[in-house]
TrEMBL record:
Name of the protein in its database record: Uncharacterized protein
Species of provenance: Desulfolithobacter dissulfuricans
């Protein structure tokens, strides 16, 4: 019966759930954060860091890979090079900053002007 419960839990796991849990953990340790920058890489690893209202870091950068003990060998070599980014966004804290501030933070942190929110 224990084996069935373990397998059932794994079927319900998804990368988005793992990512959301990491975002929540980062926010918990970053009281000044207005959001968490999430950078997904082509290898499956992710880089994340909390940002404050001025677009400055509010936490250390965390690199992780879902259900793995460490990041991949490629990330160990190149620290998650920007050329391998597949998706990036900021997961905002509620209440979210106003649109002008969000645009400023996105430009400063991710180098983008569009408002990508999660």
């Amino acid at each position: 019966m224990t084996q069935k419960k373990k397998n059932k839990g794994r079927r319900n796991w998804s990368p988005e759930k793992g990512e959301r849990a990491m975002v929540e953990g980062i926010l918990e340790g970053s009281p000044d954060a207005v959001g968490v920058a999430v950078i997904r890489l082509d290898c499956g690893c992710r880089k994340m860091a909390a940002v404050n209202r001025d677009g400055d870091p509010a936490s250390e950068i965390i690199m992780y890979r879902d259900q793995a003990e460490s990041i991949c060998d490629q990330c160990k070599k190149d620290d998650g090079a920007f050329m391998r980014v597949t998706h990036q966004f900021i997961s905002w804290v509620k209440p979210e900053p106003d649109e002008a501030r969000k645009k400023m933070i996105l430009a400063k942190v991710l180098g983008v002007q569009e408002n990508t929110t999660h």
